[in-house]
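Database export, one record per block. Field names are fixed; values are copied verbatim from the stored entry.
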Amino acid sequence: MDEVRLYNSTAERETYENMAALYAIVTSLEYLERAFARDSVSASEYTAECNKLLLQHKSVSQMIGHEDLKTFSSKYRLNCPAASRRLEVGIPSTIEHGNSSGSSGNNAKYVAKT
């Protein structure tokens, strides 16, 4: 049986790896949003992880120069409405809607960034 190559060059391989990373980031963000909605994750854990995933998405997206998320999602059959919404907004839900834990001093910093 012949070997099937998924890529023909190092650049092509790197593009596929970055697209896989983007897929994983969006999927992870979807599960994080669902877990936070079910109160399975604390607000502080959610905010930290969400900020991390948003930054990773921004970095990987710039590396591959992909089309918009809607096109990427439909092309690769990625059904992540909560992650799509969070990526549109660009900030964690705790900051968007206010956090009852009393960390309102940081909210101005995050709102100013967007």
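Remark 1: The chain has six helices and no strands.
Remark 2: Helices lie at 10-37, 43-64, 69-75, 81-89, 93-96, 107-113.
End of record.
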